[in-house]
Design goal:
The protein is an alpha/beta fold. It has 2 domains: 154 residues, Nucleotidyltransferase, domain 5, CATH 3.30.420; 179 residues, Nucleotidyltransferase, domain 5 (2-Layer Sandwich). The protein is built from 10 helices and 11 strands. The protein has a 6-stranded mixed beta sheet, sandwiched between helices. Strands 8-7-6-9-10 form a 5-stranded mixed beta sheet, sandwiched between helices. A hairpin with a 4-residue loop joins strand 6 and strand 7. Helix 5 runs antiparallel to helix 8 and helix 6 crosses helix 8. The radius of gyration is 21 Å and the shape is globular. It starts with a strand and ends in a 7-residue tail after the last strand. Bound molecules: 5'-O-[(R)-(carboxyoxy)(hydroxy)phosphoryl]adenosine and zinc ion. 5'-O-[(R)-(carboxyoxy)(hydroxy)phosphoryl]adenosine binds next to helix 5 and helix 6.
Amino acid sequence: MYILGIETSCDETAASVIKTDEKQRHFSVLSNIISSQIEIHKKYGGVVPEVAAREHVLNILPVVHEALAKAKIKPKQIKAISVTKGPGLITSLMTGIETARALAFAWQKPIIEVNHISGHIHANFINPTSPIKFPVMILTVSGGHTNLVLMNRNHKIKIVGETRDDAAGEAYDKGAKMMGLGYPGGPAVAKYAAEYKKNRPKISDSPLDFPRPMINSADLDFSFSGLKTSLLYKLQKDKVWKRRIPEYCYEFQQAIIDILISKTIKAARKHEAKTVMLSGGVSANDELRAQLDMAVKAKLDKAEFLVPAKEYTTDNAAMIAAAAAFSLKGMANFKKLKVNASLQLK
Ligand code: KG4
Ligand code: ZN
C-alpha cells in the first residue's frame, strides 16, 4: 500500500510517498521531497514563524505534486494521508494539516495524524539493516526537542527523560549565533569542530573546560542552558576568541555529546534496552553518531545501535509516513475518514 506523508512543523515543506508490504513490515521510500526555507530565514538568524507559514502556503501543493510525480503514483492509489499534527509552530502546522484535510476530502482518503517526535523516531524503521530488538531506547535530539523515549514491541512509547530547558539543537543554534556562525548552527559548529579535531594540540595553552550540566544527576533529564551561558561568559572574557572558533566549537560540541551519551547509556541500562536509537536533526552529526555507537558497543551488553540514514535525520515527510504505517497496523476499521492514530506520548 502507498501512504502520502506531509510535514510542515517548522521551516521545511515536505511530502513523501512510501510503499509498505501487506504486513507493513518493510517500507520503501518512493519519494522524499523537501523544500527548505533555510536561505530565507538565515538573514534573521532563526526561523520567523509568520514568514515560514507564508512560504509553506506557497510550497505545499507543488511539493505534494512532486512527491506523487516522482513516486509515479496517482492519488487514487494512496491508502491514507499522514500529516504532522504537532508539536511545532502552530501557523506552519496549520498549512500541512489543512492541506491534508482538503486532499483527504477531495480524494476520499483517511487522515492519520502523526506526532512529530514519533515521526523522528520512526525514521529508524525505514529500511533497517536487521530485525529490530525490543525494548528500544531512543534519544531524540532536534532544534525543539531533546528526550529519551522507551518503546515496546507494539511501538507504545513513553518519555523517560527530557530537557528541562533548551534542546540540544537549540544549544548548537544559540552557541553558533553567539560566535556569528549563522543559522542553522549545528552543521556550522560540527564543521569547525571536525577541522579542530584533525589538528588538535595534545595540550592546550588555555583549555576550555565547559561544564556538563546534570551529567551526574540521578534522573534521565537534560539541561543545556548553563552550557550556553558558560560559552557566553567565556567569549566575553576571551579577547582572541575569534581566532579560536574551531576550538570553541570542538569543546562546546564535545560537552553536548558527553551529556547526551552519558544519559542515553544510563537510560538503556536502567530499562534493559536491546536496541539504542538516535533520531532528530542533531542525529545528522557525525561525531555524535560515531561516539554513541562506540559507547553502546563498549558499555552495553549485546545492545545494538541504530541511526537513520542522513536524509531522514532532519525534518522530512518519509518519517511521518513511516510512523503512520505503524499506526495503521492492526487498526480495526481502516475506512474511517478521520483517525487519531498518533502514538501516545506520556
Ligand atoms: O529535527 P530538525 O530538522 O527540526 C526540529 O524538529 O527541530 O532539527 C533541526 C536541528 C537544528 O537545531 C540544527 O542546528 C540541528 O538540528 N542540526 C545539527 C546538524 N544538522 C542539523 N546539529 C548538529 N550537527 C549537525 N550536523
Ligand atoms: Zn524535527
